[in-house]
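Input record (one chain):
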Amino acid sequence: MLKNRASDYHNKNGYVNRRQVSYSFAYSTSALISNVNDMFTWQETIKNNLLISKETTEKAYTNYTLNNGEHINYSYGWHIKEINGVPTREHGGLFFGFKSTGVYLPNYDIYVVRLKNCDCNSPTKITREIAELAAKH
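The corresponding structure, as predicted from the sequence alone:
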């Protein structure tokens, strides 16, 4: 048990604690423990080119076409999409009982993050809806 860490849940006919798993097997692909302040710091670091160069950031936020000609809305870990014609940069994560989604609207400098401690359903839809509402105001 980690002090002050949220417990993880699963919803199957009611909320139950997820089974304990070792966080060591995921390495860098998952199991990062974070909070909204950390996520905001990460977003600001990327946005202000403090971790990687502006050129690399631009490559990371470019949609690509696969060798078979199929266009995808994914680039170097980010989903490159739109909400009502407004470009978004999105990233999600999950790990045994936890799910997250971050949506950044660069035209408005709005960043919305949703962290869940239940693997019950995806946080993506509501996170995008909140970002859309924020962009209207």
